[in-house]
Structure formats: C-alpha cells, structure tokens
C-alpha cells in the first residue's frame, strides 16, 4: 500500500516501517467490531504514507528555498528594483515563478486561457506578498 502511494523506494519503506510500528504500538486499541484487521492495517499504512509524502513535500520546499536564496542573494545586492523583484520571485515555487516571470515578459506566456493565466498570476502574487511580509519585507 505504501509503495502504491509513494512509489517504490526509501520513502515507501519508511512508511511501511512506520506502519508496522504503529500497528504494534496500537494493537490493544484494535476493535474487531469496527472492521477487519486488514482494513485497519491498510488504513494505518495509508495514513503513514500520506504523512511521509507531506514530509517529503516540505523537505523539497526547503531545498527549493535554499536554492532560491542562493540565487537571489547576489541579485538583491545590486540595489536595482528589478533585481529585488527577481530575488523575491526566486523564492516562489517553480510554477508561481514561471507565472510571474511570464507576466513581466521574462518568459513566454503559457498556452492557457487568459482568465486562467490571470487567476494563476493573482494567486502567485498573493503568495509573493505573503512571503515578502513573512520575511519582514
């Protein structure tokens, strides 16, 4: 079940191990009147796999932020408003970054409906403002 959710690899193995530990720790709470043992174990495996997936997502986001900060630092030192904007945009996730860069003309606009692009841009800019406010900007 963990490999079906996470794909084969160390994350699935970690989730499976967490599942076994959780099952053994909580076996006294199992109630056969509420369902089968297999259903309980598979539910536990699903929850553990989702937890690992969220953790993996947060870990990837931190890595992107570190890469973005390394990219952004030299730009912000130039005392140029465009460089400061690009430094902030570098902190966004890749999809938001591409949307904002397309809006300012640094990237080609995606082949989407105008309303879809405007909505993506609106959301990206809201996240950019939130990130700037969170960094004391």
Percent of residues in helices: over 70%
The major pleated sheet works out as:
none
Q: Can you give the mean pLDDT? A: 78
Continuous helix count:
6
State the separation between the terminal residues, measured CA to CA: 44 Å
Order of helices and strands: HHHHHH
Low-pLDDT parts are none
Describe the structure in your own words:
The chain has 137 residues and is mainly α. It has helices at 2-6, 10-26, 37-76, 81-89, 94-103, 114-134. The longest helix is centred in the middle third of the chain and has 40 residues, at 37-76.
Task: Reconstruct the topology from this structure.
Blueprint lengths: L1 H5 L3 H17 L10 H40 L4 H9 L4 H10 L10 H21 L3
Helix pairs in contact: 2-3, 3-4, 5-6
Provide the descriptors you would attach to this structure in a database record.
elongated, 6 helices, mainly alpha
The gist of it:
This protein is an all-alpha fold and 137 residues long.
């Amino acid at each position: 079940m963990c490999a079906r959710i996470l794909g084969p690899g160390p994350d699935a193995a970690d989730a499976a191990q967490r599942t076994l530990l959780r099952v053994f720790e909580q076996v006294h709470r199992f109630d056969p009147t509420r369902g089968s043992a297999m259903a309980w174990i598979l539910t536990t495996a699903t929850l553990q796999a989702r937890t690992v997936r969220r953790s993996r997502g947060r870990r990837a986001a931190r890595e992107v932020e570190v890469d973005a900060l390394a990219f952004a630092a030299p730009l912000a030192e130039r005392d140029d408003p465009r460089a400061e904007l690009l430094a902030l945009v570098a902190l966004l996730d890749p999809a938001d970054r591409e949307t904002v860069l397309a809006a300012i003309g640094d990237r080609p606009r995606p082949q989407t409906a105008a309303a879809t692009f405007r909505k993506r841009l609106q959301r990206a800019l809201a996240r950019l403002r939130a990130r700037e406010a969170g960094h004391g900007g």
